[in-house]
User: What shape does this take?
Amino acid sequence: MKREWEKQKATQTVLTAQLKKAGDDVRRVTKRRQRCAAETDDLKDKIEEIQLHNDNAQRELRKVTTSKQDVLVDNNLLKVQVKRMREKLNQRTGQLLSLETNRQDLETVIAHRRHEIQLHEDMLKAQQKTAETERQTISLELQERLSRIEKLKKR
Assistant: This one.
């Protein structure tokens, strides 16, 4: 009975460790998602800044006719940068969506594991109750037998 209790205690320890690990995984994914969100915001700001700079360069192009070719080259360079930044933004957005999906999957797994743990705990409690009932029955039988032995000894 003690071995069974120790086995149940070991099972509970393993399940508790698994639950803690899953919680750590969720926290790690959440932190990563937050970092990606911050990077996405920074990239959006940089894109807006580059687009503003691009607009200023185009106005300057109309004003300065003598440096028309130089300004066109700068404008093309800025467009390439905007394209790269948009590609990075799209990539980061994809990563963010992937992380969010992973987070949701992990939450589902955690909920499922918690349910399994609860079921296992309920089963262990029922087994413990059954074992206690059996112990009490055996103890009662032992007392009765000891009582009979005492009565037989007295005769």
Notes: The chain is about 95% helix and 0% strand. The chain has a mean pLDDT of 90. Residues 15 and 116 are 9 Å apart (CA to CA). Residues 68-154 form the longest helix (87 residues).
